Amino acid sequence: NARRKMCPEAAEKPTVIKARAGLLWLQKTQTVQDENVNGEYGLIINGHSLAYALQKDLKLELLRTACMCQTVICCRVTPLQKAQVVELVKKYKQTVTLAIGDGANDVSMIRAAHIGVGISGQEGMQAVLSSDFSFAQFRYLQRLLLVHGRWSYIRMCKFLRYFFYKNFTYTLIHFWYAFFSGFSAQSVYDDWFLTMYNMVYTAVPVLALGLFDQDVNDRWSLQYPQLYSPGQLNKFFSKKVFVRCVMRSCYTSLVLFFIPWAAMHDTVRDDGKDIANYQSFALLLQTSLMIVMSAQMFFLTYYWTAINQFFLWGSLAAYIAITFTFLSNGLFFMFPTSFFFIGTARNCLNQPNVWLTVFLTCLLCTLPVVAYRFLLIQLYPMITDKVRYKAQKEGLPTPSPYRPPPRRISTRRSSYAFSHSQGYGDLVTSRKFLRLKSRPSLFGQKDSPVVENQPQVYRTITEEVEDSQS
């Protein structure tokens, strides 16, 4: 009953953490160093020994010993001990744990782990109902982790980076505008743009990114399991990545605000009329912001589908259509207090200097990002970049040969796995008690005279008794 591998990241994190640091590193992290191991070892421990090893003064030594082994097998343990082993790894190794089981005795372990996986087998549905993911066979765990799990992690990290980037940029522009509005809390955008920005304009493209994006396809993911390692090391999202995202948002917001402000200061139209007003400046900021956010979404997307294309270009088309509709004369005459930016779109966006300002602003926002990504891939490529480059050169790898599932010889099972005490173990595992005695058939090996159509000979009771006595 091998239940679990403890410490799958022992090679990357060879220390046992006793106290975790605070959010801003106000506390010191206490660690216990592991010993150097020259060789490959395994640890097998049963329930009686594990009960002593999980005591307060021995559990850290158990964890250190387990992390120095390649494989740890805990056999004949109780459901509570399974959960205690998972809690021990979660608390002192600070790693993401996964528990997989198929019966009711695995429920506590599945609930204790960060990720619970249940196998729908012949031992009931308790493990499936208590798990986060469920499938029918254990071999599907490889695809769940190396393909779908890795894709999900990358999509979530991209979603978070883009979400923070677009909202920090959108909000910091208000902060820079406060210096010019006397901190009067006046919004730099149109009121309807404030409502539609997160609900309509930028919500659907990032949703498509979080659902369909993938760096490499499933064949390359299974062929190179090393692609899973950046997720274990938090390469795609961490505190450093968050700080870089905030710094990039500050730069983008500065460019988006001060470039249009300097370009439109004391600017006139082709007919000599003044164009430098609050409404035109707000429209210029909104348009530049939408184009920059769409460009960032374009750079983040690796796997393009028809849905991604439709949502990305559809969001820009929806912005243009809604803007011209809300700034039209008809809505102003019907609701003059709600749509007061009348005629701003057609009077501002028909000027060449306005589009030149938008182009310059978007170029200054996106060019540093492209240059940074280019240098990063050329100088410090990750395993993901190398595999993507190889996939572009070679195409799809050859699929693995199909292996038919093994045929189950017998579906008869024993309930001895639920027993945790020594007893009639040899008898149960030998399955001798399941072998039934051969019963005589109704007509034996030789057919009866009735079947063979032979004359029957009847004997009296006296003859039967004489034969039995002799």
Q: What is the fold's blueprint, element by element?
A:
Layout: E1 15-19, E2 30-33, E3 42-46, H1 47-53, H2 59-67, E4 71-75, H3 79-93, E5 98-101, H4 107-112, E6 115-119, H5 126-129, E7 133-135, H6 140-178, H7 191-201, H8 203-212, H9 218-223, H10 229-232, H11 239-264, H12 278-300, H13 306-326, H14 329-334, H15 344-348, H16 352-379, H17 383-394, H18 425-430, H19 449-452, H20 461-469
Parallel strand pairs: 3-4, 5-6, 6-7
Antiparallel strand pairs: 1-2
Fraction of helical residues: 40-55%
Largest sheet features: 3 strands, parallel
For the secondary structure, the number of strands is 7
Class inferred from helices and paired strands: mainly alpha
Distance between the termini: 60 Å
Helix tally?
20
Shape: elongated
Percentage of β-strand residues = 5-15%
Strand and helix order: EEEHHEHEHEHEHHHHHHHHHHHHHHH
| Assembly level | single chain
Rg (C-alpha, Å): 35 Å
> How confident is the prediction overall: mean pLDDT?
79
Low-confidence stretches: 1-13, 414-420, 441-453
Spatial arrangement of strands, main beta sheet: 5-6-7
